[in-house]
Specification:
Blueprint (H helix, E strand, L loop, with lengths): L2 H20 L2 H4 L1 H22 L7 H31 L3 H6 L4 H28 L9 H25 L5 H15 L12 H7 L3 H14 L6 H25 L6
Helix pairs in contact: 1-6, 3-4, 3-6, 4-6, 4-7, 4-8, 4-10, 6-7, 7-10, 7-11, 10-11
Length: about 260
């Protein structure tokens, strides 16, 4: 395939993925907005008023970056894992594999769909947050780059989960037992400076902590971790997961019998 044909193939996959979640926006965009509004009411106003300031910010203001990134993580992941497994289940993926489309373009197309949904939900949740509290912007470049890189990372993770999944139940195991606990313990609702030294050390092994704090630095200018270490961790995970996902796709793992 020449460059133009590859562009057409990538665009076709990307448009299919975007239209897939955009057509059912009531199920994909609206629920995170309602959930985030409830978080702000319960944690921001009712509980947050008892907590006081964190790193010089009101509690509601402090949790905004974590809540935005949490929705981006879950929606990027959910979009790719459900889309890829549905393609396997309905045997649509074979049509892509027999077409003269490089596997890396198929992978990039699914990642693009997860990225599009993650960013769409992130913007929608940010609008909801603005009804409750003003949102500072310390560094636009850091905030946008961390948002995009995190969405790409979890789109890749969703793709790998989709490859390994053998039933619809399998696509909910990782989000329920791995992703959700790591996200809630990743500093979304608190600073690890509030924890005892032992639990601070344990928290530093959680990769989502670095993403949440890097994004928090972009908005508020405060972070519990070094920004360079956070970028290195995110880029390292993306490189590793992209290589692994492409390897599985090239082997046809879980696809070819």
């Amino acid at each position: 395939m020449n460059g133009r044909e590859q562009y057409v193939a990538f665009k076709a996959i990307l448009v299919k993925e975007v239209l897939r979640f955009a057509r059912i926006w009531i199920q994909t965009i609206l629920p995170p907005m309602i959930t985030t509004a409830l978080y702000f009411v319960i944690f921001g106003r009712l509980i947050g008023s008892q907590v006081g300031d964190v790193h010089g910010f009101r509690y509601m203001e402090y949790i905004v970056p974590g809540l935005i990134l949490m929705t981006v993580i879950t929606n990027s992941y959910a979009n790719v894992v459900s889309s890829f497994y549905s393609s396997k289940f309905q045997h649509n993926i074979e049509e892509m594999l027999v077409a003269p489309v490089p596997n890396y373009l198929i992978l990039l197309g699914f990642i693009g769909g997860g990225l599009a949904r993650g960013l769409a939900v992130g913007v929608a949740v940010t609008v909801v947050a603005l009804f409750f509290t003003p949102i500072p912007l310390h560094s636009l470049w850091v905030a946008c780059s961390v948002l995009v890189l995190t969405s790409i990372l979890f789109s890749l993770a969703g793709f790998i989960n989709g490859i390994y999944a053998k039933s619809f139940d399998d696509i909910s195991v990782i989000p329920t037992f791995v992703l959700t606990p790591l996200t809630y313990l990743g500093g979304v609702f608190y600073s690890i400076a509030m924890l005892p030294p032992f639990w601070q050390s344990i928290s530093l092994t959680n990769p989502i902590l670095y993403m949440v704090n890097a994004f928090r630095y972009g908005l508020l200018g405060v972070s519990d971790v070094n920004l360079g270490v956070a970028y290195a961790a995110i880029l390292g995970f993306i490189a590793g997961l992209f290589g692994f996902a492409l390897h599985l796709l090239n082997r046809g793992y879980g696809i070819r019998s």
